Amino acid sequence: MKYHLAIDIGASSGRHIVGWREDGELKTKEVHRFPNGPKERDGRLTWDVAALLAEVRAGIEKAKAEFGSIESLAIDTWGVDYVLLRGNEEVLPCYAYRDGRTEAVIEKVHEKMPFAELYRRTGCQFQPFNTIYQLYADKLAGRLVGVTDMLMLPEYLMWKLCGVRAREYTNATTTGMVNAQTGEFDLDIADALGLPRALFPKLTKPGTVVGEYKGIQCVLCATHDTGSAVEGIPMEGNQPYISSGTWSLLGVKTPKPITDEASREANYSNEGGVGYNRYQKNIMGMWLVNQLQKELCPDTPFPEIVKLAEASTCTATVDANAPAFLAPESMKAAFDQAAGGALKAPGDYFRCAYASLALSYRDAIRELEHNTGKKYEKLYIVGGGAKNAFLNRLTEQATGLKVVALPIEATALGNLKVQMEPANKKSSPK
Question: What domains are there in the chain, each with its CATH number?
Answer without folding.
Answer: 4-223 (3.30.420.40), 233-409 (3.30.420.40)
